[in-house]
Write a structure and sequence with these properties.
Rossmann fold; single chain; 254 residues
Amino acid sequence: MSAHDRPRHDGQWFATPLGQYLLERERAYFDNAVADVFGYNAFQLGLPGTDLLRASRIALRCRVDPSGEAELKADFRDLPIASNSADLVVLPHVLEFSENPHQILREVARILLPEAQVAIACFNPWSLWGFRRLFTRNGRYPWNGRFINLPRLKDWLTLLGLEIVAGQMSCYVPPCAAQKWLERLAFMEAAGDRWWPIGGGVYFLQAVKRVRGLRLIMPRWTDQLAAKKSLAAVPKKVARPEDAVTARNGVNSE
């Protein structure tokens, strides 16, 4: 693993006012994104100190990271997870800190089941956050990352058969270190979403793994139920005693 592929999620930075500002919005997004995804296995790659699968209804939830802070220690580029076994993968700020982000996405596509989902968070280079990165040379998180623009990531996902189904921008405020300025500039969240929709410091994407030619097979019990309905007997009219008497009288009168 090269130096640039080592985990760069600095816990100290996320404890700062700006880091907390970011986490608050990311937790809210991922809580909503994973709540209605069902299945058996969910994985969070990166950010091991924060549980972004807490709102998931999936029973088996596992955090994966190259560090020893997660339940599973692994290289994102070579995941020890079976192909077609994951119902959900969450990918918070992993791609920007890898020399080969496309390989990580290939691994994600490999482990996902058909119709399973991946939710991604990335820093946006076309934002005030990206502008600050250009002028910050201290090598500290998150300014040491290689921010990926949204169109490029969309292209990568499409090439891997991952169809984008939802997306959102967030963190329109300037990346200020002081809490008081973050509070004073909070109005920029609503204003930015309306007037500068592509300028959020962070963007989120949700994608579904599509497989060409895949045909969903209904359970056998549904076929049996349909067969029973189609073969249902039509009830016969039961003759009443008074009908028989009426018929007999009619015959006698003739």
